[in-house]
Design brief:
The protein is mainly alpha-helical and 360 residues long. It has one domain. It is built from 13 helices and no strands.
Length: 360
């Protein structure tokens, strides 16, 4: 339908159009909704920054996400089937995650309700056909999919603890997903358009979220992003195939581990440290890996740049996996897993060497 050059200009236009829309939308929100999502004074809410800032960045994400569906239908009508179960499930799951996050930002919902909603998001993806294919037993695939979705929603929520961190991490993850989509499957897909739209909305939000930030994405953004990144992780990495088209479980698992290393490591380290102190991993605190990088002497902006650099390194690894490893061998797994545990050991060791002034 379109040539490669035409697709380049179409995708570029989509990105910059969505970027401008995100900048304008967030500017309007900054002007008219200065108190939405401000919960610093409430029990159980811990923010790294001392000043109060509105948390509505996720609203722009969801608007552009829905707009991407409409744009894809207009530009690629022959490839747009609105009744695909996978797309309906994605719409339902992200919509539910968005609404739950919106309620949490506005009313500070109970943890049990939040957890139940996260499970429901995973169930919607499974029922619509989006689930991890690793085990021979389907019930095990369903179980790991639910764990993946709930874990990703909580990881992104926990990673939203300092200016720019979640934003740059999500952009890097989506860049890896876009690379996977453009090199491993049909060039024109709804997933490509969605990823481009969300990446543009994140770039537009980063203008307001970079240190010193003027707004947060809030649970509205982190819960929506968690579901969408879980979906992209399943589509582009968990269920990916090698250059030969064969299913390679080790390649699938290791590539996912590398791409999502930062949220996985931060959540794991925080959980281990809080349990070791006899606390709850679900109670907020200033004890994340990002905070300890700050305690080590980095500024907030430098911490965000470190995470951006590590995300770029993941992008390089994904590029190598997709273009230079036709057949996955055991030593490939050893090399990439060694990198993951080296990064984990560095960040975990950092939390042991630096002293947090307040870890409650």
């Amino acid at each position: 339908m379109y040539s490669g050059t035409q697709l380049f200009f179409i995708y570029s236009g989509l990105f910059f159009g969505a970027l401008m829309f995100a900048l304008v939308t967030n500017s309007v929100f900054m002007r008219f909704f200065r108190t939405f999502g401000i919960r610093e004074g409430q029990e159980g809410v811990v923010r790294w920054a001392g000043s109060q800032k509105p948390a509505f960045g996720g609203i722009g994400f969801f608007i552009i996400f829905l707009g991407a569906f409409a744009v894809h239908g207009a530009l690629f009508p022959k490839q747009s089937d609105p009744f695909q179960p996978e797309l309906l499930g994605l719409l339902a799951a992200t919509g539910l995650g968005f609404l739950m996050g919106l309620a949490d930002d506005a009313y500070n919902t109970r943890p049990l309700l939040k957890f139940s909603t996260q499970i429901a998001c995973g169930v919607l993806l499974v029922l619509s056909g989006t689930y991890i294919h690793v085990f021979a037993q389907e019930w095990m695939n369903y179980g790991i999919t639910l764990l993946w979705v709930v874990g990703m929603m909580n990881s992104i929520n926990m990673l939203d603890n300092m200016d720019g961190i979640t934003t740059v991490t999500a952009i890097c993850i989506l860049a890896c997903g876009l690379l996977s989509l453009l090199t491993g499957g049909p060039l024109v897909t709804i997933n490509v358009v969605l990823v481009i739209g969300i990446m543009a909305s994140l770039c537009g939000f980063l203008f307001f979220n970079w240190n010193p930030s003027r707004m947060y994405m809030g649970d509205t953004g982190s819960q929506f992003l968690g579901v969408f990144l879980a979906f992209i992780g399943i589509r582009c990495f968990w269920n990916s195939t090698g250059m030969t088209g064969a299913i390679e479980p080790w390649r699938q698992a290791v590539s996912t581990l590398i791409v999502f290393a930062l949220p996985i490591i931060d959540t794991t380290v925080v959980t281990i440290n809080r349990i070791a102190r006899g606390g709850s991993p679900f109670v907020g605190g200033k004890d994340h890996t990002t905070h300890h990088l700050s305690y080590a002497g980095l500024s907030d902006a430098q911490v965000a740049l470190v995470f951006a650099g590590l995300g770029a390194l993941s992008f390089f690894f994904v590029f190598a996996m997709l273009n230079f490893i036709p057949v996955w061998l055991p030593w490939h797994s050893v090399v990439f897993i060694a990198y993951f545990f080296t990064l984990f050991g560095f960040l975990f060791g950092l939390t042991r060497r630096t002293k947090a002034p307040d870890t409650d």
